[in-house]
Amino acid sequence: MDRSEIIRRIQVRENIESQCKGSIEEKISRYLEIEYQGIIGGHYFANASSECIYLYRDGYFIGAVMMSHAINEGIIKFVVERNKINRNRKDGSTKTIDELIRELKDKHIISEKCAAASTKIWGSFRADIHHMNPTVAKIPFQKLAQQNLKHLSTIEREIFGHEIKEGAIAPHQPKYWDINAGGKMAVFLRLE
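Above: the chain sequence. Below: its structure as tokens.
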């Protein structure tokens, strides 16, 4: 490394450290206010869900909102699949996430509270944000990210709710956990 690169690295390090130290209490508060599920099934959306929490914690609100939309859709599709619900209408077209949420609620597969949380995420400026319509300039992203992550927590608590019995996870809804013949399961830990 030459001298200018060393100096630049030092400057970047000092800037990052200063930013981290200056916002640590805000980050802690945002992290704790979500009350996320500490253990969820180790499925394809689990890592993204955890990263979404970190985005919100670190103040990347637009990214957190966008990820909350995607994770919500992923979980709904997962629940639909596990309950063997047909994702197509009679005419062969694909049902919307909103239609699937209503169907899951009407069939009492998810609760009213879970359906409401999922619907609120689905309706939280999703199309405007994903298509970067001019209206995004007026969206209060911090508040929206907070709301969406709290709704996502509601959904995950219902789908992946569990108790710890004799040192083992006892899922409330085992069909959403991949439990093998020996009783072991793949989980995603978010315990801090």
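The mean pLDDT is 93.
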